[in-house]
Amino acid sequence: MLQSLFGSSISMALRNLVMLIGAVVLMLITQPWLSAMVLIGIPTTLLPIVWYGRRVRRLSRTSQDRVAELGRYAEEALRGIQTLQAFSHEAQDKRHYRQRVEQAFSSAVARTLQRAWLTGIALLVIFSAVGLMLWQGGQAVLAGTLSPGELSAFIFYAILAAGAVATLAEVAGDVQRAAGAAERLLELLDTQPSIQAPKALATLKQPAQGALTLSNIHFTYPGRTFAALDGIDITIQAGEQVAVVGPSGAGKSTLLGLLLRFYDPAAGRVLLDGVDIRTLDLNQLRATMGLVAQEPVLFSGSVADNLRYGDPNANLDRLRRAAQDASALGFIDALPNGFDTPLGPGGVQLSGGQRQRLAIARALLKNPAVLLLDEATSALDAESERLVQQALDRLMQGRTSIVIAHRLATVVNADRLLVLKDGQLVASGTHSELIQSSNLYRHLAALQFGAEAPVAQAH
Ligand SMILES: Nc1ncnc2c1ncn2[C@@H]1O[C@H](COP(=O)(O)OP(=O)(O)OP(=O)(O)O)[C@@H](O)[C@H]1O
Ligand SMILES: [Mg+2]
Fold this sequence. Notes:
By secondary structure, the chain is of the alpha/beta class. It is built from 16 helices and 10 strands. It has helices spanning 2-30, 32-44, 46-79, 81-86, 90-143, 148-190, 252-259, 282-287, 303-307, 316-325, 329-334, 352-365, 382-396, 431-437, 439-449, 454-458; strands at residues 212-219, 229-236, 241-245, 267-272, 275-276, 289-292, 370-374, 400-404, 416-421, 424-429. Strand 7 (370-374), helix 13 (382-396) and strand 8 form a beta-alpha-beta unit. The termini are far apart.
């Protein structure tokens, strides 16, 4: 809409404005008295412009929103096409999509209707004024006070002026339409992120050590009534390997989200190397952390492009080393174009475990002081998991790491295990300490290792 406004409407408006001014000047010079009639018509056209213009603007915004909703729906359905088909949801989705198309269509029709009224009424007003003027002029010619030649010249000017006004009214409709669309755009551009670095930044000593302190953290997701984290106190030494375990929904991923400052806690502070992360530059904070998220997210582009998310300047050697460490080199080399193989939107052309290993390699390439692994090996088979685990154990030396795992076998060797439940830290210690002290941990261990394993020792 903005393109058509700036591409053609503006030039049309300028041309017609010049024509209008020229015609009005000539009219005034030649026939001041007759001109008055046409000239009162011009301000009258402002009324429909104001009246309908506002509606055009509002409807334009609605119609823009509906078209956006349409795009969002289609994108979601296409992205989840296999789930959609597996649930035989095609007919329903077609119906929903059709409904949205109809809505978008009807709001576009409503908008066009208002714009048509605007142009129509403006035309009616201005040409009525011309008609009135013709009649008066004709009378004057019959009475002999005006020559036919003078009247013809004047009619020519009046038609130029009226045509220009009609075009300007139409352009005014376009401007309102574009203003409605731009309103939405500007709103988005003006949105202030609630997570912002302060003006006076604290600095982190380089290289970052990766010591983390969470003190009395309370956090509730927007729109939720229960706290996702409820009074968490954790101190993690630089270089310590900490595992977080606990039932689903306990708040483990949320904890990582707060460390990366995706959200600010409602109460409590997070310190990195003794500095409150709310006083740090976001890029500096996040540069110290390497995240492997629970849902590994890849982007369209090649394997190398995805790995270079971790470090845009990494050369192929470093890519290969990171891939090797994540046990990903084997399958990457087997792809048709190796590191240059495109992966499709969201990395759909890889298996779940392959995506996960790429996500690990990407985090390793960043060489972060703090490694955050959220179920990073959950999609791997036992053999690859062992390989990746060995590599990770090696890489975790000298860095702080926080590993979330449901499979306890992968974390029993951590320096410390934290047991989270319902947003609270219910126990912490090494595996053998927890077997003694924590009922919840003993229960989780019993489920996974069987009754005769570590649990038996506890009794
Ligand atoms: N974006 C969100 N908006 C609102 N609530 C959320 C959001 N993300 C998580 N929650 C809620 O916060 C709680 C903790 O979620 P979290 O993702 O931290 O759990 P988790 O311990 O990582 O679980 P899992 O082991 O299943 O990954 C859950 O009750 C969840 O429903
Ligand atoms: Mg989680």
